[in-house]
Amino acid sequence: MMHVMASGAIDWAIQTGGTSSSQGLGIAYDGAGGALVTGYFYGEASFGSTSLTSRGMQDAFVMHVTASGAIDWAIQAGGSSYDGGNGIAHDGAGGALVTGYFSGEASFGSTSLTSRGMPQDAFACAFVMHVTASGAIDWAIQTGGELDDGGYGIAHDGAGGALVTGYFYGEASFGSTSLISRGSNDAFVMHVAASGAIDWAIQTGGTSYDGGCSIAHDSEGGAVVMGYFSGESSFGSTSLTSRGEYDVFVMHVTASGAIDWAIQAGGTSYDGGYGIAYDGVGGALVTGYFYGEASFGSTSLISRGDYDAFVMHVTASGTIDWAIQAGGTSDDRGYGIAHDSAGGALVTGYFKGKTSFGSTSLTSRGGYDAFVMHVTALGVIDWAIQAGGAFDDGGYGIAYDGAGGALARLRGPAQAHLCGAAMPSA
């Protein structure tokens, strides 16, 4: 993890982990210059002065990093199988709302949950938990059915609860609401109250693979949501058909769980989105990747290599008014995005080889390097920096630091995936 100042300079960086696999996947600003981070680890791992040992193949972790880069607490959740945190949001009071996946029987503080699917399934059920400012888990809930389910994106609702998105397969329970996927996977969006009760849940999708990847609160109780879909899919009263194998969707969900608009972006190949941020005026800033020629509203972009990263702005009415790309002759993708409080965005991801970020050219030191770039409200890249070494590294989450800079979560090796579904190479 590192802190990038408004000028693009890195003023501190820290690491966590042990002798086995550990990855940070989600990051959120804590409101006081620091960050809340979630992910997974295996075996024994160090988080500052705290040492944790996984109970199974993977455990989820949540840690707090202060404004100076010190880890002051870290906790774990999980059982004897595969468990991990994917998304995290600040709860407005120093704590965190976290979503992810678990399999079999898993412990979340004093709460024990058992997945409804087969114990050997790596992503059997989704969970949502609340972690207090002192690092205590005070409630945890589960969703899902007997097949594959996972929570990927989470946002604070402004009132102590959470808006969550992810995917499910087959018949799945969301509190008192039961949903049945129309295809292999469907996306879901649900609202969890501050008490941990699920008061509504909706689905989107068609007869193929669909999933929700990222979500942001719209400041009025609803959310802007992005994910992927394949074939013909329904988003409330809107029907979209992918131009290629996968397209990106962005939709707006009201505080009551109604979808009032949905749009798509993509081309004739594999295109996907990973991150969304609310723009402060009803719209959204979105990042991801595309291959070949792809349409973003009236803007057409052609990738320079296998994949290029994109950033686009979607207005409050659901119109894409600008889209830009960053990339070179190899594989480059945007993963995390945060609003900069001035209409622009801070973006992280990974790149390989020589890559152009506006007028800035960077060359990776290893296979892949992480990048952080700033995009203005007009869609101009005004600076970009890199981080990495001789092996594969990538930026997978970013949060605005409240002062023009960013807190970015790095991990390696860089991995190509479609937010819960297998992602083939170009």
TrEMBL record:
Entry superkingdom: Eukaryota
Name of this chain's protein: Pkd domain-containing protein
Provenance organism: Chrysochromulina tobinii
